[in-house]
Design the sequence.
């Protein structure tokens, strides 16, 4: 690889390393534009609210919003275009020049293509479509980006209509087909433009099927009619029926093997000739080229009629300045190619002198580097133009890239400053709005204190009721009934042969004793089974405990619903205009279990716009309680089951003794059954008696649970703060008549502030 190729590869890699930061800058400006659109909507919402007076409405505007939005969009697009520049895998060279200067011949000498792909002509313009030509050692093809009907009308027909002052512009291809154009016009330039338009009109059938808006691939040998005007011979032969396929082509991309070294990463952009007589041709000639070409070669040939740099050439350089953009040095971007004719050295000398005096101020290459060559000679073009140009670009492109990026950033910084100034003015207006509208925080705090006190009073009343139930002299009839039912169930089970039938039980006992040779083999396991079953049957008290806990949840929910029951309505009901008063206990639907109401309250606490985790935890702790015989009362009655064991303690000596000693006969089995019956009934009686003495325990537990809930909800360290948060989040629902309108205005105001802060944050990031 040559030194030039190595330098160009290094340049392209360096460009790619800058890409992430450029992409971030483009995204920041894009985000800024989105925020500004949001701000516009938010200000419109705020101005429309009924709480805004006429003076505030007039002040809540951004007078230069449209200009700022456009400038921001342009800044975002500028960085996007630079990103495209830095992602290119080639260094692109534009080739331009007025008609008959040798531009197409130079392109042939650089690319190795011929008249079938880059047509040349004598006396008339031939290049109709901008082409991009890239070196490819293996591929030879042309990819044609075709116009759609809409883009054809907008980019080709509309400029011609505008230049000729013909209206209206055809909106469809069918309308264009039906247009009747005048035969001639008096002005010379207008006559030329009209001729172009009539040619496109008469040849519509030849290219209308090509207006697909897609990409068409053609062999290079067939590409000429798609990129060049018809030749004089073709027009003479076919007349108005001559095909004009080029009219359907937006741009061509050609790939072929270049015959020169250093070209692996080079792209050539073939530009239609400067000074061509067409509607806005010069502007379209350079449209979209900024950051798409890294340098431009302008071809100039001396002739018998023009051996000097004329006004057309000067105007062309002016257009290329637009493509140059933020590159400071014209001479680093634009180069002149003096196309010499060895047979006419005196003409070359005339142009050489004119370029030296009038273009470079008498000093060679002072402002523009001039490459002198015979563009027909590919070898000379490689040595005298391409090689020196690539060497200059390998050295100068990093500087130009830095200038482009710095210039774009400088331009964007002015947009940033204007945006920041408008934001400052808006904040001054928002300060006025804040002083004259909104809900004072002390009103919110007073409402929160009012709600907290009201709930505290109601909960204190409920706790007092539960305390009386827990410590009163009246035994809970429900507990007594549940206990009696469980006791009777145990006795019935015992009398039914411990669930097996008495005869079956005795038969099983006898069989086991005879088989094992002693009574303990049956008695030991059976004692264990009976203990477990008696305990399980008394566990039926769990239904009573569940009912009591459910009742406690219902009573607690009713207390809370009395103050904020409207929140327990379905969400669609809460948003309706006919929300009932928050102090109506009936607002909570009677059919809803208290547990569900409390669970919804915990959710409201946890997921409010300003979360209240302490209040949510208090409710969840109350709901997380379980009242069960197994955990609450079983430890107290366990000793009552002790006699139901094979080994028992002697009451006098304290020694362990076996309480089963019966003969291995049917009579022994009968005795064993009587013993088990007696012991089981005694155990059941003792348990029933012990549990009856614990009748107050469930009520005491429930009292303690609700009292703890009340203490946590009302007097925890974060209670006051979280009640304020709760009221801020739901005050429109709790007190709709007082807060809804004002809070809606506050919400709109807060949205404006948030978006303004987002814009400020993006501007700070951009400045860094």
Sequence:
């Amino acid at each position: 690889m040559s030194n030039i190729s190595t330098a160009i590869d290094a340049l392209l890699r360096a460009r790619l390393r800058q890409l992430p930061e450029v992409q971030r800058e483009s995204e920041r400006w894009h985000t800024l534009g989105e925020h500004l659109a949001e701000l516009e909507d938010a200000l419109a919402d705020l101005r429309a609210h009924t709480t805004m007076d006429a003076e505030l409405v007039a002040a809540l505007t951004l007078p230069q919003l449209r200009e700022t939005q456009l400038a921001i969009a342009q800044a975002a697009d500028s960085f996007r275009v630079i990103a495209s520049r830095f992602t290119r895998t080639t260094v692109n060279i534009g080739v331009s020049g007025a008609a008959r200067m040798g531009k197409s011949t130079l392109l042939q000498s650089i690319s190795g293509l011929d008249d079938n792909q880059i047509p040349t002509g004598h006396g008339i313009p031939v290049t109709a479509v901008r082409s991009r030509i890239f070196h490819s050692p293996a591929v030879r093809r042309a990819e044609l980006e075709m116009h759609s009907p809409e883009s054809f009308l907008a980019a080709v027909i509309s400029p011609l209509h505008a230049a000729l002052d013909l209206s209206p512009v055809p909106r469809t291809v069918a309308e264009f087909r039906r247009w009747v154009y005048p035969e001639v016009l008096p002005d010379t330039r207008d006559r030329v433009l009209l001729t172009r338009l009539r040619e496109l009109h008469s040849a519509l059938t030849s290219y209308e099927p090509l207006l697909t808006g897609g990409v068409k691939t053609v062999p290079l040998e067939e590409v000429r009619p798609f990129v060049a005007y018809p030749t004089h011979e073709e027009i003479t032969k076919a007349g108005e029926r001559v095909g004009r396929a080029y009219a359907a082509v937006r741009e061509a991309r050609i790939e072929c093997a270049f015959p020169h070294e250093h070209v692996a990463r080079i792209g050539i952009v073939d530009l239609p000739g400067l000074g061509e007589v067409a509607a806005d041709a010069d502007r379209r000639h350079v449209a979209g080229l900024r950051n798409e070409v890294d340098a431009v070669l302008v071809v100039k040939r001396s002739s018998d009629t023009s051996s000097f740099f004329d006004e057309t050439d000067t105007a062309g350089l002016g257009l290329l300045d637009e493509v140059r953009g933020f590159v400071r040095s014209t001479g680093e971007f634009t180069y002149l190619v003096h196309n010499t004719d060895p047979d006419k050295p005196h003409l070359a000398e005339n142009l050489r002198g004119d370029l030296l005096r009038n273009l470079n101020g008498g000093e060679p290459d002072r402002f523009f580097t001039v490459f002198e060559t015979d563009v027909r000679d590919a070898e000379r073009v490689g040595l005298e133009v391409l090689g020196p140009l690539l060497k200059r670009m390998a050295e100068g492109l990093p500087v130009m890239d830095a200038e482009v990026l710095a210039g774009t950033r400088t331009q964007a910084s002015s947009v940033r400053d204007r945006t920041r100034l408008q934001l400052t003015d808006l904040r001054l207006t928002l300060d006025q709005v804040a002083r004259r509208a909104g809900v004072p925080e002390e009103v919110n705090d007073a409402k929160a204190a009012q709600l907290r006190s009201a709930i505290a009073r109601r909960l204190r009343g409920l706790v007092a009721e539960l305390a009386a139930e827990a410590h009163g002299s009246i035994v809970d009839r429900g507990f007594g009934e549940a206990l009696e039912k469980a006791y009777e169930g145990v006795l019935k089970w015992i009398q039914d042969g411990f669930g097996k039938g008495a005869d079956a039980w005795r038969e099983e006992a006898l069989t086991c004793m005879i088989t094992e040779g002693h009574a303990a083999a049956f008695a030991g396991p059976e004692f264990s089974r009976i203990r477990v079953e008696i305990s399980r049957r008394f566990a039926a008290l769990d239904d009573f405990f569940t009912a009591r806990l459910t009742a406690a949840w219902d009573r607690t929910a009713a207390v809370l619903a009395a103050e904020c029951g409207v929140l327990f309505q379905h969400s669609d009901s809460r948003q309706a205009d006919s929300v009932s008063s928050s102090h109506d206990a009936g607002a909570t639907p009677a059919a809803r279990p208290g547990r569900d109401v409390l669970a919804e309250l915990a959710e409201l606490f946890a997921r409010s716009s300003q979360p209240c985790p302490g209040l949510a935890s208090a409710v969840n702790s109350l709901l997380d309680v379980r009242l069960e015989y197994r955990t609450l009362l079983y430890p107290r009655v366990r000793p009552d089951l002790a006699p139901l064991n094979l080994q028992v303690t002697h009451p006098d000596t304290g020694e362990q003794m076996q309480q089963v000693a019966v003969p291995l006969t049917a009579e022994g089995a009968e005795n064993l059954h009587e013993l088990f019956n007696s012991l089981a009934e005694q155990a059941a009686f003792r348990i029933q008696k012990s549990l009856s003495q614990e009748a107050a325990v469930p009520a005491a537990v429930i009292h303690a649970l609700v009292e703890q809930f009340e203490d946590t909800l009302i007097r925890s360290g974060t209670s006051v703060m979280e009640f304020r948060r709760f009221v801020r989040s739901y005050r429109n629902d709790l007190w709709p008549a007082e807060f809804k309108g004002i809070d809606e205005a506050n919400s709109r105001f807060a949205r404006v502030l948030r978006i303004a802060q987002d814009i400020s944050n993006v501007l700070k990031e951009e400045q860094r």
Notes: The chain is about 60% helix and 10% strand.
